[in-house]
Fold this protein.
Amino acid sequence: MLFHPDEKLAIFIDGSNLFSTVKALNIDIDYSKLRRYFADRSRLLRVNYYTALVDDAENSPLRPLVDWLDYNGYTMITKPAKEFIDEHGERKIKGNMDVELAVDMIDMAKYVDHMVLFSGDGDFRSLVEALQRKGVRVSVISSTKTRPSMIADELRRQADSFVEILDLTKYFTSNGAPSEIRSS
């Protein structure tokens, strides 16, 4: 991934997708190091983190991470998750933040030179294409090393650059960091 020190950069993190990726790879993200990594290489304008929370958010296992990120330079975009019972009678939680993330990226396009998307969701391919038409360079960070791959082939091909998250672990994985600042 190429950086220019004077380029304006914004980061968009699909929280549930990143969680699934790092869980599959058995790595922990140190979000303080992640933010610093990008801030040291560009003019970092914003880091948005998107996640859905269960109604009882105070007791959510995500609450410590959400609070820590909110107090440490991340912009948190959350909404209530929907709970339902599937066909097997199991309780499931669903909370898709794709629309919020896409709207925010389109809105920020006129202010930035480069966007970094932490997601492998193929639904974002047309979003990346639209941002590129506006003159924004888009890098996508996800993984091909999981089985199945966490990055949709169409998103990887559309991005200006695809970065395997394992290639960045030396820069922002935790080594003994408190669990509340690790990946959600």
